[in-house]
Amino acid sequence: MNLDDLFLEVDKDLTIDDSELDREALRNPYLYGKYLKFHCQSRAEYKNAEEEYKKMYLDKHQYYMGKAEPEVYKEKPFDLKVLKSDVSMYLEADEDLSIKRKTVEYSKTKVDYLEKTLKAIQDRSWSIKHAIDWRKFLEGAN
After folding, report:
1. What global pTM score does this model have?
2. What is the tally of structural domains in the chain?
């Protein structure tokens, strides 16, 4: 699920129907479980993307330092001698690494959003409770 789909799903799920507060209160455990599963899946995707980035970073570092396997240079020649102090500049500008870095950042953003969603679901319980208490007050019940 991409972020846009997730945003729509969360907006739909976290909307409280104030005409059925009891039903909404009972939905909270279901919603928490649903988004906890999303969070676990997204966290695994994030960790996987992070590991792929680290591996690619090492491969690219060896490539730019001239220490990669000879087959690598046959596929993608690189005839420059790069100073050790300049390797970071090449790594930052590398297109493949940039794509992986964006994937890691996207996954991290999704995990962060889901953590905030789980917190919002917990807070939703308080909102429902306060709405019920307010209705009791307005009706004169203690």
Report:
1. 0.86
2. 1
